Amino acid sequence: MQRKKEQTIGRRNEQRTDKKLAIGQEEKMQRKKEQTIGRRNEQRTDKKLAIGQEVYVKPAKYYTQKTKERYRGPFTISKINDDNTVEVEDIRKRKFKYHINSLKLGFVAESLSEED
Q1: Interval 8-20: pLDDT, tens
Q2: Long-range contacts made by residues 34-41, C-beta under 8 angstroms, separation at least 24?
Q3: CB 91 within 8 A of CB 69
Q4: Model pTM greater than 0.85?
Q5: Any alpha helices (H) in 1-116, and if so which ranges?
Q6: Preceding peptide of 74 cis, ω within 30°
Q7: Distance between CA 67 and CA 24 in Å, rounded?
């Protein structure tokens, strides 16, 4: 009888210890997750888009070929939506809708005569 009591007490102590370890691990995992999110947010760069700005678009079906164009365009931004999408139009005024991640900002070179 005494031996059964000791085994039961031993199991209870193990269960308590296991619960404490589980709680400690959960807290540690939560802190690690928050650190990772914070680090990624620091590295993040938001694209500064404006209506009328020229952009290039990465095609949806992108095949890695040496001679294939990687971006199409230039397109002009006609509308910026809240759901991270942008409406762009081409030279012929046809409108397309793309996600912000598939856009590349166009580069506008300043004329050389202004520097002189």
Answers
A1: 555 655 666 666 6
A2: none
A3: no
A4: no
A5: 2-43
A6: yes
A7: 55
